[in-house]
Amino acid sequence: MTDKPLSSPARIKDIATRHGFTFSKSLGQNFLINPSVCPRIAEMGGAAKDTGVLEIGTGFGVLTAELAQRAKKVIAVEIDKSLLPVLDETLAEFDNIKIINNDILEVDLASLLKEEFDGMEVFVCANLPYYITSPILMHLMEQRLPISAITVMVQKEAADRLCAPMASRDCSAITFAVRYYSEPKLLFNVSRGSFMPAPNVDSAVIRLDLKSERPEGIHDEKSEKFLFSVVKAAFSQRRKTLPNPLSSGLCLPKAKIIAAMEQIGIAPTARAEALTMEQFIALSNALQEIK
Ligand code: SAM
Question: What is the pLDDT of residues 247-260, one digit of tens each?
Fold first, then answer.
């Protein structure tokens, strides 16, 4: 059976039976069985002979193995302890993989990257557990870690939202965050039949190339924090015109918000989904002055 690839359903069933492993829906355990997907994620995600790769969620190690074949070193964080004996077996041939049994949201990534990848260019590659897509992306982006790019599989609907342009109907607070911290790109779609067990939705692989600088107009952590509170408030009631959600979310009088909007040339009838990144920054800076 070991002659079959890790993406083969027969091999997955055999491993699951021998190790008494049951797929956990609540941990988002849908493993890849389409053999063409992992090599593409590894190659398009930056795994190369001098690079370090952080993987989130190994499953049986199908992507981990592809990453380890190409990268100098792979650190993989997996929450499910019952996968450890499986990985001992499936990744036995590699000496450049370290598995960390933890919740990715609990890991001190700044220290981990420094300890494990000193001097290497670092990339993140993963088939993400979909139930925590946004928290994981925020965890990776907002700390301004030394990561060049994040290449991840997410639900197709989430991919569309994450890669939507600003000032479009699909955009939301997470779209803003992605555009603020990175240059997003939708790489390719993956059908639901590419997984075992098959989920109810299709997926897509996206790549976020991280920016090293704050955008123009945002000079420090305080104005960045306030900007994100403005964006959160603005999208909390996206159908309403901006003075309403901003007034309740930021505890500011509506009249002052309308005056600030007019001062920077945004109509008070505008909704969150109509604003560009630059307009959000200008609005935030104007509101911060009157706060
Ligand atoms: N990489 C494998 C593949 O492509 O077949 C598995 C991908 S599966 C969609 C997601 C994986 O993330 C599972 O192995 C699951 O146990 C793991 N996982 C779920 N929540 C996690 C968390 N908070 N931290 C780390 N790993 C997690």
Answer: 999 999 999 999 99
